Amino acid sequence: VSIMLRLVSKITIKQIARAEYPTRTKTFILDFVNSCEISSSWENFTATAELIFPKDLYFTDENSQKVTWVGKNTIGSAATTPLLLRGDKITIELGYIYPTGVANEEKIDTNVEFDGYITEINNDAPIRIKCEDKMWLFKQVRCKNQVFPSATYKLDSIIEALISQATTDTTIYQSIRDELSASNVTVITGT
Predict the structure, then answer these.
(1) How confident is the model at residue 23 (pLDDT cuts 50, 70, 90)?
(2) pLDDT per residue over 69-80, tens digit each?
(3) What is the pTM of this model?
(4) Dihedral angle sign, alpha carbons of residues 53, 51, 114, 159
(5) What is Dmax (Cα atoms) for the chain?
(6) Any bridge partners for residue 129, and if so which?
(7) How far is CA 74 from CA 55, 80, 121, 133, 151, in A?
(8) For residues 78 and 106, what is the distance between their CA atoms, to the nearest angstrom?
(9) pLDDT tens digits for 150-160?
């Protein structure tokens, strides 16, 4: 008996409100993608993802209302609130649909393969979105010019100092400060 597996994807994009766009609070759910490439390894500090979508498409928001990029400025302008912005949260779930053995009944199994933030949006056709995991948050923090002498600081105390600075820095988005404050960073050092 052969079982046919069908690929399934669910991409969730959550808008993050900013001072210039305070009404950006929607969540979009896309159940398709032309191409999805996720790169994650122990050698790299940052996991990345790149998604390609067709320009002429419809998807749903958190209220199951149809939304389209057609005729809208995907990344926004002075006159319109953008659908997508750098820093919006993104989750990529991938999996399979397969028959259960009961007539006309199928099961869907998915796993979260990527959880992070949009870092780049190419608004051409097709639409290309690049993403990074939570390490992107640390890249948004501008470190002050400071020396961390090895006699006083260890790696974990340097990270704590940087997180403390990031959570009080008013130049980064409140959502990033909140995420950094809530992050439980564990530093594992070898001896």
Answers:
(1) confident
(2) 776 666 556 667
(3) 0.78
(4) negative
(5) 69
(6) 51, 121
(7) 10, 10, 9, 22, 50
(8) 46
(9) 888 888 888 77
